[in-house]
Amino acid sequence: EGYGEQLPLKLGGATCVREERLTGRDSLVFLVDASKEMFIKGEDGAPSNFDMTMQVVRTVYTSKIISSHRDLIALVFYGTEHSKNPNDTFKHVYVYHDLDEPGAKRVQDVDALRGEKGAKLAAETLGCGPSSLGDALWCCANLYSDIKLRLSHKRLMIFTCREQPHGGDNVKDRQARTKASDLKETGVVIDLIHLMKPGGFDVSLFFRDIVSPPEDESELGLQLEPCEKLDDLQKRVRAKEQKKRATARINLCLGDGLNVAVGLYATAVTARKPPPVKLYRESNEAVRSKTRTFHTQTGSLLLPSEIKKAQTYGKKQIEMEKDEVDFIKKFDDPGLVLMGFKPMEKLKLHHHIKPSVFLYPEEGEIKGSACLFSALLKKCSEKNVYALCRCIARRNNPPRFVALVPQNEEVDDAKVQINPPGFNVIYLPYADDVRTLDLPRCTSASQEQVDKMKDIVTKLRFKYKSDAFENPVIQKHYRNLEALALDMMAPEEVEDLIMPKVEQIDRRLGSLVDEFKNLVYPANYNPESKPAAKRKTGAEKKPKVEVSMDQIKVHVQNGTLGKLTVPVLKEACKQFGVRTTGTKKQELIDALMDQLSS
Amino acid sequence: MAKSALILCMDVGFNMSNSGPGEESPFDQAKRVIQKFVQRQVFAETKDELALVLFGTDSTKNPLDNDDQYQNITVHRNLMVPDFKLLEEIENQIHPESQQADCIFDIALNVCVLVENTTIHKLDRRNIVLLTDLNSPVSSDNLDVIIENLKQADITLQFLPGQKRPRTEGRPGHGEAHHQLCMFKRIERRPMAWPCQLTIGSALSIRIVGYKAVTEEKLKKSWKTVDAQTNQKDDVKRETVYCLDDDNETEVQKEDIIQGFRYGSDIVPFSKVDQEQMKYTHDGKCFAVLGFTKQSSVQRHRFMGTQVIKIFPGKDDEHAAVALSALIQALHELQMVAIVRYAYDRRSNPQVGAAFPCIKQDHECLMYVQLPFMEDLRHFTFPSLENNSKFTPSDEQLSAVDSLIDSMMLVEEDEDGKQKDIFKVHDIPNPAFQRLFQCLHHRAVNPGTPLPAMESWLKATLECPEVIRERCQSALGEIKNKFTLTQVEKKKKLKTSAQIFGKDSDEPEAKKAKEDEADEEFNLADIAEGSVTSVGSVDPARDFRTLIRQKTLTFEEVCKQLTHRIEQLLGNKSTDYYMKSITCVEAFREQSVKLGNADLYNSYLQLLKSSIPTQGLESFWELLVQDGVTLISEDEVEGSTVTRNEARQFLVTERIEEAAAHPAEDPGDVDDLVRIVLL
């Protein structure tokens, strides 16, 4: 399984996985206007609306491949000269990609439509013709109904810069409205991504009746200005393209049976390289793995009831039944329980053990939740306090304490939401999680030294944005896969965005560096010299520590094997003929204990 | 690492058995304290050694034993790492005895010095703990001399005394000692130094050393699988086999397996060698500044990773200390942070993160936290709460919430204007560890008995403080009055099929009974008309029940018809059909139990389970699991070959296997691993 499935599994556990399974796949149809107007270039050679749209489509394709490859995507053009759709029922509708999982080939196809060359190719294969949005929507409806898989979230995005695709043809307008409402009735959400055109884009002329009403009835959706820049377009598509799903729906108990229903949302999850798929050498088909537990001597399969779980402490192995292991983990049913409130300054920067999640009311579970939640949010924010809660997100999870930090809604100039309203849930460390450090004696810098550093810092100021850095490891991995999948000669280069731009930094700082160094370092001081390196060679020369078998036995008896180093333990294993696959210290100790203490 | 030795001296003499009616005797108290203490040591797996010396024993066993001196003293155990054997001995072998040891301090010292010689190790710290009710004769002059002697021998003397005391001041009271001991020792890890250079461009570098300061601590040990009969780990073997996804599940040899990766819908074969050659590589260990930015632009909720690293100047490097101090103070004064590239070493993946200035009274440092990559972020849009009139709270409602917050403040100012935090999470030991150790200890010393309830002190630490709970009562009542909260009746939410079919256990019994009656009548009517001749597709479960009552067909035949229908229904892969199938399986089960014939049903369900992966019936199985529709056990039908436990496990195991089938890839950050290896 790719990691699209893994993420919710790790985060939300049972609840979320069940939800995915029951609800099926997400789907997204790009319905793109291919009329002449879309190909008009902007001022100063700025990319055409069509070009921008293709860039965005490509971004969505590749990001889906990385983050949720099981989602289905289609790309359909309308207002084309040529037609391509099942049975060619519809004129001037071109199904470039039908609903399917995106793959390498499709990314290439979209790439081909980008830029100067892309416009040419589009002119050849698509061409420009009369538009019928009604036909186009009807065609999309067929795409949906041809899918045998169960679809959960169905979204259709119309990209156009024409506010009246039919030039005021009432019949065609009415037909399009009918088809749109048919689609909406089957659960398809229709969005308009309207693009810049001279004179502005008046949504009310036609599209108001085509698109789905916005979620929150605040008409946020329709007040949006048309997209002019690629950045805005990317942002707007991205905000819609991911279907948000709660990783858990639980109650926030304020005390005494007073419950507010809330959903937990993972808004930041560490993306990792997906695990490899095992393939059969002969046919390259994926194989399934089956893990069996059996008895070493008799070779018979062991039923769950025939095995137990055990841990060893103080030289004693302690056994438990599997359900006892679960019982130990269970403290309470899932939920958030309010302990009280604390001033925000009590939340320290170093209170961090894992990424936070986002909390939003679930009006659908307990009616009135949104109102109380909203009041709580407003007041916490006003009084600058956070709520301290005990949190059990899933069944049989031990409790964690969390800080609910209020976050007010924030929108940017284009009215795209940057920060949604709700609480950020910050996980707090227990006593065990905070390590005691021996604090080194510190020498403080003088104000002159500090001021010089301030000059350096000021020279290297930049505006940090949380989505500015791509993960070079993941990008490289996918570039490699892309190259292999598409038989490219070499993978596309990946720019390592988290590499310091050393030359640029040096240039900017100029003489400041030397000035600072003169202030803090003596003439012969070299911070690059590693005193550690010396030690290293010393360690290599150090003769191997020999420990006699008798001494090992004493250690086994006293339970003091832990005092020995890993190489010594490995040597001991060899001497006593203890076979072990483990390399960790604890594994070596366990192996020796098992063998020698009995 | 500092190793220390501790000698527990326990007075078991007759004086220790005296107690008022209903009071715990000093002996019992002392024993409990010792038990708790040893428990802590055992689970903390410290390498500290421990000896136990008993005073006032009837017999004598110690190295100084001669004629009339050092009598009634038993060295129960010489210095060694404490283990469960010691715990069992304390539990079972240590009883109040009838002698009294004289001059307990003096003797204790001498004995202990000797006991210490029993260990072959060099000790950094030595402690003697004395447990006595102090009713043994001792003069304070004598005590001073002894304490002086101890000082010279570099031994610390501590008291963990019984309750009937203290005649000397300044020793910890019993209550405190006991509460401290209740908790299992918190996990302590030796901080691993990470020496590196902080670089700004190519010309400026500062020697630094990093320490993990905060991280979610995990237990070193995990559960192992052992054979239930022999309790031997070696008797259980796990094996993974691979097979093709065809009807025969053709097995494939491990050598014939290559690895590939998904690229969207494509699977790209990609050998380990190729992957290794083509993967992203970097120069290794690094802490390089990319630039500086305003502190406010790094949002708290965007912190990633699982740790906070504190960065100090390189060890014993005064110049580095000055340089780093200049950076820390500059950032502090400008309210800025450094955005850095951080890599633990060559093998681990590089990160982007923020280094915050941290200035405390006794130290300065940078605090490094990982920040997200673009790929990590999910941009969810949520409906506005403010612009929606339906959700906007009234002024009255707002003021009710206002007073709730006021009444539940956990931080208060005392008379001196000092802030007092009455709920410090970072002082609470991880309850999961505490509970696990409690249960492990119980199982080890009381085998064969059920696991105990959670200890009350632990439970209390997880609850809202009593004072807050009382104080917020009226504010809470006000909220209840001002806000209407109503549970939404679920109409179409596919939670469990039982809910859908209105068979929730919450349903009043009377209603259920009534339905059963209706069911009965309905079926009788059916029989009278003789309309049902086979298991149809409209309501197969009803037909099945009817046919079984009619007895015109054999049980086997009816079951065959039913399972045939179930297969048809499941072929549709849709939730509605799944629901219908579940009622069929339930009916199958119910009638099998009624007729006392479990075999057909059990083998069918096992078959069904085995076909899940091939048929893609995962979600259907989930529903069965939710409804708890499992095998029929021998408790329900005599002659069933399934035990109750197996029946229960039948559903449970599926989930475990599933979890095991998608192992989470180990993060690139290998420093934890490295740390454990080096330890």
From TrEMBL, chain A:
<dbReference type="InterPro" id="IPR002035">
    <property type="entry name" value="VWF_A"/>
</dbReference>
<comment type="similarity">
    <text>Belongs to the ku70 family.</text>
</comment>
<feature type="domain" description="VWFA">
    <location>
        <begin position="27"/>
        <end position="237"/>
    </location>
</feature>
<dbReference type="GO" id="GO:0000723">
    <property type="term" value="P:telomere maintenance"/>
</dbReference>
<dbReference type="InterPro" id="IPR016194">
    <property type="entry name" value="SPOC-like_C_dom_sf"/>
</dbReference>
<dbReference type="GO" id="GO:0005524">
    <property type="term" value="F:ATP binding"/>
</dbReference>
<dbReference type="GO" id="GO:0006310">
    <property type="term" value="P:DNA recombination"/>
</dbReference>
<dbReference type="InterPro" id="IPR036361">
    <property type="entry name" value="SAP_dom_sf"/>
</dbReference>
<dbReference type="InterPro" id="IPR036465">
    <property type="entry name" value="vWFA_dom_sf"/>
</dbReference>
<keyword id="KW-0238">DNA-binding</keyword>
<keyword id="KW-0233">DNA recombination</keyword>
<keyword id="KW-0067">ATP-binding</keyword>
<dbReference type="GO" id="GO:0043564">
    <property type="term" value="C:Ku70:Ku80 complex"/>
</dbReference>
<dbReference type="InterPro" id="IPR047087">
    <property type="entry name" value="KU70_core_dom"/>
</dbReference>
<dbReference type="InterPro" id="IPR027388">
    <property type="entry name" value="Ku70_bridge/pillars_dom_sf"/>
</dbReference>
<dbReference type="GO" id="GO:0003690">
    <property type="term" value="F:double-stranded DNA binding"/>
</dbReference>
<dbReference type="GO" id="GO:0042162">
    <property type="term" value="F:telomeric DNA binding"/>
</dbReference>
<keyword id="KW-0547">Nucleotide-binding</keyword>
<dbReference type="GO" id="GO:0006303">
    <property type="term" value="P:double-strand break repair via nonhomologous end joining"/>
</dbReference>
<keyword id="KW-0539">Nucleus</keyword>
<keyword id="KW-0378">Hydrolase</keyword>
<dbReference type="Pfam" id="PF03730">
    <property type="entry name" value="Ku_C"/>
</dbReference>
From TrEMBL, chain B:
<keyword id="KW-0378">Hydrolase</keyword>
<keyword id="KW-0233">DNA recombination</keyword>
<dbReference type="GO" id="GO:0005524">
    <property type="term" value="F:ATP binding"/>
</dbReference>
<dbReference type="GO" id="GO:0006303">
    <property type="term" value="P:double-strand break repair via nonhomologous end joining"/>
</dbReference>
<comment type="similarity">
    <text>Belongs to the ku80 family.</text>
</comment>
<dbReference type="GO" id="GO:0016787">
    <property type="term" value="F:hydrolase activity"/>
</dbReference>
<dbReference type="InterPro" id="IPR005160">
    <property type="entry name" value="Ku_C"/>
</dbReference>
<dbReference type="GO" id="GO:0006310">
    <property type="term" value="P:DNA recombination"/>
</dbReference>
<dbReference type="Pfam" id="PF02735">
    <property type="entry name" value="Ku"/>
</dbReference>
<keyword id="KW-0067">ATP-binding</keyword>
<dbReference type="GO" id="GO:0003684">
    <property type="term" value="F:damaged DNA binding"/>
</dbReference>
<dbReference type="InterPro" id="IPR014893">
    <property type="entry name" value="Ku_PK_bind"/>
</dbReference>
<dbReference type="InterPro" id="IPR024193">
    <property type="entry name" value="Ku80"/>
</dbReference>
<dbReference type="Pfam" id="PF03731">
    <property type="entry name" value="Ku_N"/>
</dbReference>
<dbReference type="GO" id="GO:0003690">
    <property type="term" value="F:double-stranded DNA binding"/>
</dbReference>
<dbReference type="Pfam" id="PF03730">
    <property type="entry name" value="Ku_C"/>
</dbReference>
<dbReference type="Pfam" id="PF08785">
    <property type="entry name" value="Ku_PK_bind"/>
</dbReference>
<protein>
    <recommendedName>
        <fullName>X-ray repair cross-complementing protein 5</fullName>
        <ecNumber>3.6.4.-</ecNumber>
    </recommendedName>
</protein>
<dbReference type="InterPro" id="IPR006164">
    <property type="entry name" value="DNA_bd_Ku70/Ku80"/>
</dbReference>
<dbReference type="GO" id="GO:0005737">
    <property type="term" value="C:cytoplasm"/>
</dbReference>
<keyword id="KW-0539">Nucleus</keyword>
<dbReference type="InterPro" id="IPR016194">
    <property type="entry name" value="SPOC-like_C_dom_sf"/>
</dbReference>
